[in-house]
Design goal:
alpha+beta; five-stranded mixed sheet; 2 domains; 34% helix
Length: 330
């Protein structure tokens, strides 16, 4: 595989057509030359799932093997270990060598049916600046039987600020390579946190037979003229988190719904008044009824109330969707 990865990097750097790539590296399988002619610099090795790549399921201790064609009539069989069952249709695969180790990226799709989706509760998820996600479980009614809020991702804001400061400091010194390195490190750390948060939310929903409710954040950057707030919104990965939650939940057959998010943090969920105040970032105070609570908890409560009664969720039954998911095997 080292020979294939080295040849791939050579071909995508010079950016030659197929014939030029074949003359440069006749020792590797011709499909690599074909894909390299349209690849961009630093792209991982693209594996054609029809001729270059195949996943084999076994009954051995290593449940899966991958067969990768490296030369004409020569395949390498590699055992792979994954905690998750690989099901569905593999229609895209890429191989990346990083720090001396190989990573395999599989894009798998399957048809998910919600025929048996009869949720008995709602898991409302509010996204904010202080806590990137706050989840509250509601069962039977909105005045009782709701769980304590689960606050998640409080360290994301501090992490983004730390790396923004480092990038600014390195940028002044014209250390552009270090800026890219720091940005990549930040992205990996933030993505790891987001994946853990989305998994926690999906697990809670599955354990409680709940539908996941998210706020629709489309157009949020156009709702305020505050430069500080716009900068905060731009730096927080809300859209990425909603995508992670949705594809993981739908893959397991858990429905994900969205409702309008506008004004959910401003209105008092108890009396409906907008005569409210936030003395500091995490506290919500209603001057009309005197109610006080965490601002993210108030937002999640308003989202759940906008969805309506649980009986209306039976409309989910009979629907289905084609879901795509990315598996990373290291």
């Amino acid at each position: 595989m080292d020979e294939v990865c080295s040849a791939w990097q050579d071909m995508i750097k010079v950016k030659k057509p197929y014939s030029g790539n074949r003359k440069m590296h006749p020792e590797v399988y011709s499909k690599y030359a074909s894909h390299a002619s349209i690849a961009e610099p630093n792209d991982p090795v693209y594996l054609d799932t029809q001729r270059m790549f195949k996943v084999i399921k076994t009954d051995n201790k290593m449940p899966y093997f991958v067969a990768i064609t490296v030369k004409p009539r020569l395949r390498i069989w590699c055992p792979i270990k994954t905690k998750q069952y690989i099901e569905g249709n593999i229609h895209d695969s890429k191989l990346l060598k990083r720090d001396g180790h190989y990573e395999l990226y599989l894009t798998i799709s399957k048809e998910v049916s919600f025929d048996n989706a009869h949720p008995s509760s709602i898991l409302a998820v509010d996204m904010g600046e202080r806590n990137i996600a706050t989840a509250v479980l509601f069962a039977n009614s909105f005045t009782s039987n709701q769980s304590k809020p689960i606050f998640m991702g409080r360290n994301v804001r501090g992490l983004r600020r730390k790396y923004a400061y480092l990038r600014k400091k390195l940028g002044k010194k014209k250390l552009l390579r270090m800026v890219r390195k720091v940005s990549n490190r930040e992205q990996r750390k933030v993505n790891d946190i987001l994946h853990k948060i989305s998994r926690q939310i999906d697990d809670v929903a599955k354990e409680n037979n709940a539908v996941i409710l998210l706020g629709d954040l489309s157009g949020i950057r156009n709702r305020t003229r505050s430069r500080r707030f716009n900068r905060i919104i731009a730096s927080m990965p809300f859209y990425r988190l909603t995508k992670y939650i949705a594809y993981k939940a739908n893959w397991e057959g858990t429905p994900v719904l969205t409702t309008r998010e506008w004004y959910s943090s401003k209105l008092c969920h108890r009396c409906g008044s907008d005569n409210t105040l936030r003395p500091h970032q995490g506290l919500f105070v209603c001057h009309a009824c005197g109610y006080q609570c965490n601002v993210d908890y108030n937002g999640a409560f308003n989202l759940a109330k906008r969805l309506g009664k649980l009986s209306s969720l039976t409309a989910l039954s009979g629907s289905s969707a084609k879901i795509e998911r990315l598996f990373v095997i290291r």
